[in-house]
Amino acid sequence: MEITHLETIPLTHALPEGQGLGDARGFGRTRATTLVRLETDTGTVGWGEAFVPGSIARATAEELFVDDVVGMDPFDVESLAVDSYTDPYHFSESVFVQSLVSAIDVACWDIIGKTVERPVHRLLGGTERSTLRPYASTMYFTEEDRPLEEPIREAVDEGFTAAKIKIGAGLESDVERVRVAREVLGDDALLMVDMNGNYRPEQAVRSARAIAEYDINWIEEPVPPENLTGYRELKQRIDIPIAAGEAHYGRFEFKRLIDDRTVDIVQPNLARCGGLSEARTIAKLATTENVGVRPHIWNSGVGLAAAVQFAASIPDYPHTRNVPEPMLVEFDRSENPLRNEILETPLDPTGGSLDVPQAPGLGISIDEDALERYRAD
């Protein structure tokens, strides 16, 4: 078997005027990503996602990947990430290169699973799970004036028993947002907060101490991702677990986070970290050092499916049945047709449980008509 065709498919969706949403750093009005479609000489098709703009993804693919990938046996998938660190030399640490590696890698695993008729999570090894616990990623900062409690109440009505909210816009705002979220969720639900790297260490410390009484499961990106000394300072000064990784990619960046005990939880994004092969390596590095692994997901339906397959395989170490800890997966609750409409059967997180697709490969089918509606080329 060999790959005969590689296609990049840019997708975009614009939110209506005045309905932008985002985090403490600012609002966004466009959701965009790039899918990669691989086809083999047997007619098997695999899908992956590169979380970068379409024009950059296409240029990177044509310049650096097409000649090597076309003609490749998809079963040689794990060589992709390894080779990317040495060829192209000096470009391997580019987020654009790693995002393309991610997409091609995931598409190869999709092909492998379809070929051997097994879901990807059964091929990755580790712990096998049939269900995951989704957490609602919600309570974004928005352009439109909405009651603060409305989005978190919607998540509760959908059956979510865990949620992550946006904070990071000042101490008073942080406390009020967390107070409202906890009040609506109730005492038994899990509550995480995301500062999106908008603070200096001292600001993050003050916020963390002020919201600690609301039983926070983790603080995500309290300082910018490149501020490793800031992360180390926070680890010494606050008791709430720290999570990061959405803006990191490749095993070497994650190894620094893990080896330095910079964070308690790493969050590889399957459309940026190097794909399923690198995510599996990252998970092994993390669990070896007893660091938690929870994938970051703010992607299309393809990236979501890849993250779900990965999450279903993450080892439980060091836990046993006597220390039950659910595997959490992020589920963005903002409007995103690139997540819902491009899949013939969208993944359903409502009711507080998410079934892991058991069909071969990623376990999804692409709605080609929807794909055409949101193509940006």
From TrEMBL:
<dbReference type="InterPro" id="IPR013341">
    <property type="entry name" value="Mandelate_racemase_N_dom"/>
</dbReference>
<dbReference type="GO" id="GO:0016052">
    <property type="term" value="P:carbohydrate catabolic process"/>
</dbReference>
<dbReference type="InterPro" id="IPR018110">
    <property type="entry name" value="Mandel_Rmase/mucon_lact_enz_CS"/>
</dbReference>
<dbReference type="GO" id="GO:0009063">
    <property type="term" value="P:amino acid catabolic process"/>
</dbReference>
<dbReference type="GO" id="GO:0000287">
    <property type="term" value="F:magnesium ion binding"/>
</dbReference>
<dbReference type="InterPro" id="IPR036849">
    <property type="entry name" value="Enolase-like_C_sf"/>
</dbReference>
<feature type="domain" description="Mandelate racemase/muconate lactonizing enzyme C-terminal">
    <location>
        <begin position="148"/>
        <end position="241"/>
    </location>
</feature>
<dbReference type="Pfam" id="PF13378">
    <property type="entry name" value="MR_MLE_C"/>
</dbReference>
<protein>
    <submittedName>
        <fullName>Mandelate racemase/muconate lactonizing enzyme family protein</fullName>
    </submittedName>
</protein>
<dbReference type="InterPro" id="IPR029017">
    <property type="entry name" value="Enolase-like_N"/>
</dbReference>
<keyword id="KW-0479">Metal-binding</keyword>
<dbReference type="GO" id="GO:0016836">
    <property type="term" value="F:hydro-lyase activity"/>
</dbReference>
<dbReference type="InterPro" id="IPR013342">
    <property type="entry name" value="Mandelate_racemase_C"/>
</dbReference>
<dbReference type="Pfam" id="PF02746">
    <property type="entry name" value="MR_MLE_N"/>
</dbReference>
<keyword id="KW-0460">Magnesium</keyword>
<dbReference type="InterPro" id="IPR029065">
    <property type="entry name" value="Enolase_C-like"/>
</dbReference>
<dbReference type="InterPro" id="IPR046945">
    <property type="entry name" value="RHMD-like"/>
</dbReference>
